[in-house]
């Protein structure tokens, strides 16, 4: 469809960026990024005629368009463009350009290749800046030495790609990275953009290696303003790869004291689920330090998200307590609920909740073990 539309519209169309890199590395990838020498918006609109179930969104300011399909997959179309930054960390200003310039504005050589999709050069690789050579030599190399100053998120991207593919940073690129970190350019980055990049890292399989690199490069210290006690050192045999994003995040924070965690949260802009889990983790950890009745412990452990409980259970100070609470809750086989109590003639109101709590406690403490005995507790 892309090739035919390109012919119809009489423009040159290329696949670019991460897709080309991963194709050459034989790594499966889903994101498709196209650039068009001409109007990306016009091309995307024409392409839509061949993709009737797609939904088109245009971002005229950036010269980009996106087609989203019902299964959630999408493809991005942009006009070849030159981007420049009014100040470090700003969103780019956009001007039309040719493919060569479009590829030159990119972050690293391995991300600066394109594949032509027009019929007469279909499938040909365009590699002006040595991307293929650097893929073979396993190198992350910038295209120009103010790359990190223009866009400080590229510092995090350099670490992400280097650890993802186990590539080295080229010597000059590494030096530029360290110089950029020391120069304080990160302070020009918004908390939102930093958070986006950090969460991309936490989603990577090898996020532990990336986390360690963020610490050893001094990047975390430069952003957060001090050394936090991050935890990216888990045993090989641990099943870190299967942990959810929230669990990974909490594990990384788990060695910090609660005041440090609250301070650190001022430097990131987390979504509600991550922020809530982090605050629940902090509150629950503080609560577990105090003496608790079985019912208080039960309420804490069984109401908290599973990931939070799992991370706390790995803390030697609380593992026994949590294990006890979980074991006790397994004894519970409650048949009564609010509706059943109403049917038994109990009046609607706070009394219902209290009775259910009493029944639950009886189960927890092993005082009852049948539905009949539950009713006895209700009558008490
Ligand atoms: N790009 C860039 N500078 C950035 C972000 C992106 O130059 N700060 C360019 C790169 O050419 C990159 C392309 O835009 O390949 C697409 O960016 P993105 O989708 O964020 O990354 P991918 O390279 O596709 O990486 P990933 O596999 O993580 O999706």
From TrEMBL:
| Segments traversing the membrane | none
The UniProt entry's sequence similarity note says:
Belongs to the tRNA nucleotidyltransferase/poly(A) polymerase family.
Task: Give the protein's recorded name.
Answer: CBS domain-containing protein
Q: Which residues of the full protein are shown?
A: 464 to 843 of 850
């Amino acid at each position: 469809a892309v090739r035919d539309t390109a012919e119809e519209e009489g423009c040159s169309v290329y696949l670019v960026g991460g897709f080309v890199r991963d194709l050459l590395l034989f790594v499966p990838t889903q994101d498709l990024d196209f650039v068009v020498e001409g109007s990306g918006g016009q091309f995307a609109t024409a392409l839509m005629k061949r993709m009737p179930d797609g939904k088109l969104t245009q971002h005229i300011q950036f010269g980009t368009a996106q087609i989203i399909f019902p299964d959630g997959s999408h493809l991005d179309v942009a006009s070849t463009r030159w981007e420049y930054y009014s100040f470090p960390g700003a969103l780019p200003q956009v001007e039309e350009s040719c493919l060569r310039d479009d590829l030159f504005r990119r972050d690293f050589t391995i991300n600066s290749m394109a594949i032509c999709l027009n019929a007469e050069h279909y499938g040909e690789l365009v590699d002006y800046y040595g991307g293929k050579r650097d893929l073979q030599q396993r190198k992350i190399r910038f295209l120009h030495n103010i790359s990190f100053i223009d866009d400080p998120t590229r510092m995090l991207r350099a670490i992400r790609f280097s650890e993802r593919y186990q590539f080295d940073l080229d010597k000059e690129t590494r030096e530029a990275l360290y110089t950029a970190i020391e120069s304080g350019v990160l302070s020009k980055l918004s908390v939102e953009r930093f958070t986006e990049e950090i969460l991309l890292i936490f989603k990577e399989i090898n996020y532990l290696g990336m986390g360690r690199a963020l610490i050893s490069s001094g990047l975390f210290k430069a952003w957060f303003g001090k050394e936090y006690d991050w935890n990216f050192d888990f045993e090989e045999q641990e099943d870190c790869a299967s942990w959810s994003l929230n669990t990974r995040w909490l594990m990384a924070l788990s060695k910090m004291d609660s005041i440090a965690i609250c301070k650190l949260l001022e430097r990131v802009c987390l979504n509600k689920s991550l922020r809530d889990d982090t605050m629940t983790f902090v509150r629950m950890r503080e609560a577990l330090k105090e003496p608790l009745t079985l019912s208080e412990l039960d309420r804490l452990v069984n109401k908290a998200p599973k990931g939070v409980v799992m991370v706390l259970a790995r803390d030697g100070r609380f593992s026994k307590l949590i294990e006890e609470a979980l074991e006790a809750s397994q004894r519970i086989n409650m048949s009564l609920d609010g509706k059943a109590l109403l049917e038994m003639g109990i009046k609607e109101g706070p009394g219902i909740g209290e009775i259910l709590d009493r029944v639950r406690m009886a189960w927890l403490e092993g005082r009852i073990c049948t539905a009949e005995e539950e009713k006895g507790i209700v009558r008490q």
